[in-house]
Design goal:
424 residues; 6-stranded parallel β-sheet; two-stranded antiparallel sheet; ADH_Fe_CS; transit peptide; hydroxyacid-oxoacid transhydrogenase activity; hydroxyacid-oxoacid transhydrogenase
Length: 424
């Protein structure tokens, strides 16, 4: 391995889209679209979300102002290169003035990819982060995108990242560019009221993982300095601004996730989780996620038969389950990189006080207790993985260069394999 002798970074970047938050925020969308000067809008969503009524209500509100509006509800539950290509082909049917994404991370990420592919020539793989894809950067203006999350989990409404399941490669990969960031995020807790318990639990673990990973990521001032200030990575490392949002998110998840899973009609819990998702999204969208997410992509991409409760009947590992599947062992392993920060995270999540005497087991024990309380799957064997799959999982993780860049400890193949093995 060639040593990088560049000096450490002294600058970090931080950004987030304009945000509208609160009960009833969706009802004001017609005013927001008019501010973009758009004469047409394509709503991108999935069949389950459409059944809940929000996309058609939004279409009615938009159409009442004279803006032409259609609903595309063909988003896959876990967006793939194939499903995104189909959505982009539909969108190319006319020159839309703007896009509206309504749903969980699948709808929001699909809309980002559609926006990219309808404003640029080429295939999606060209834009995927290396070494999986070509790492091409968008060089044309994208259309305005309004993101309306209906789950408290993805944080995609706040980020410049979209994640894709590359079916032929059996792993997930991402596209990352400031151009993908939504022009406006509308977070309305009312849209999350109908989430079933296991979807609430999985989404909540995604929020938790976003906050924890960003909070424990390599600090920006330990990263190599950018050779070109215009090309600083989207994941710049832990920083003083993201830290604030991550700490807020951890406290809210620790207090409210159990309540929301137990009682989906607990409006205060739903509202606080929506805030937590937004906070964590603005944190990780800049600082970056690391190893739990890097591990999650092959866990989700290589699944064969697992059926997740509360989700459509198809082989899939929901993203929140995938990121939490190795989290306990990852944070036990990363403890030595910053014990104080790991202990503080455990305290924020649990409301208890932890000291160095509690050591590397503090945060893993808090995580394990929470996961047990909300009935998350325990171990990779729950998804059908065993010792024979370890090489496949490790190979997939080591290709996730965007996440690996901010892992707070040097990671080699042996360390990655040991984490997966302990997570079986």
């Amino acid at each position: 391995m060639t040593l990088d002798h560049r000096p450490n970074e002294s600058v970090f970047t931080w950004s987030a889209p304009p945000l509208k938050f609160g009960e009833g925020a969706v009802d004001e969308i017609a005013y927001d679209i008019r501010s973009f000067g758009a004469s047409s809008a394509l709503i991108i969503t999935d069949p389950g979300v459409r059944e809940g009524g929000v996309p058609d209500r939004v279409a009615e509100l938009v159409g009442a102002t004279g803006i032409e509006c259609e609903v595309f509800d063909g988003v896959a539950i876990e967006p793939t290169d194939i499903s995104i290509a189909e959505a982009a082909e539909y969108a190319r049917g006319r020159d839309w003035g703007c896009y509206i994404a309504i749903g969980g991370g699948s709808a929001l990420d699909t809309a980002k990819a559609v926006n990219l592919l309808t404003t640029h020539e080429g295939e999606l793989i060209e834009f995927i982060t290396p070494p999986i894809g070509g790492g091409r950067k968008p060089d044309q203006p994208l259309k305005p995108l309004i993101a309306i999350p209906t789950t408290a989990g993805t944080g995609s409404e706040s980020t410049n990242i979209c994640v894709v399941d590359m079916l032929s490669l059996h792993l997930k990969a991402g596209v990352s560019s400031p151009a993908l960031k939504p022009r406006l995020a509308i977070v309305d807790p009312v849209t999350t009221y109908t989430m079933p318990p296991q979807v609430t639990a999985s989404s909540g673990m995604d929020v938790l993982s976003h906050a924890l990973e960003s909070y424990t990521a390599t600090s920006y001032n330990r990263m190599p300095a950018a050779e070109d200030p215009t090309k600083r990575p989207a994941f710049c490392g832990a920083n003083e601004v993201s830290d604030v949002w991550c700490e807020m998110a951890l406290g809210l998840v620790g207090t409210h996730l159990r309540r929301a899973v137990i009682n989906g009609r607990d409006r205060d819990a739903r509202r606080q989780l929506a805030l937590a998702s937004m906070y964590a999204g603005t944190g990780f969208g800049n600082a970056g996620t690391h190893l739990p997410h890097a591990n999650a992509y092959p866990v989700a991409g290589a699944v064969k038969d697992y059926q997740a409760e509360g989700y459509p009947e198809m082989p899939m590992v929901p993203h929140g389950q995938a990121v939490s599947s190795t989290a306990v062992e990852v944070f036990r392993w990363t403890y030595v990189s910053n014990p104080e920060r790991h202990l503080k995270a455990a305290s924020l999540l649990s409301g208890q006080t932890f000291t160095e005497a509690d050591g590397a087991d503090a945060l893993p024990s808090v995580l394990a207790s929470l996961m047990q309380d909300i009935d998350m799957p325990r171990g990779l064997r729950s998804f059908g993985y065993g010792e024979s799959d370890l090489d496949t999982l490790v190979d997939g993780t080591l290709k996730q260069t965007r996440q690996l860049a901010v892992v707070p400890r040097p990671l080699d193949r042996n360390a990655a394999r040991a984490i997966f093995e302990r997570s079986l």
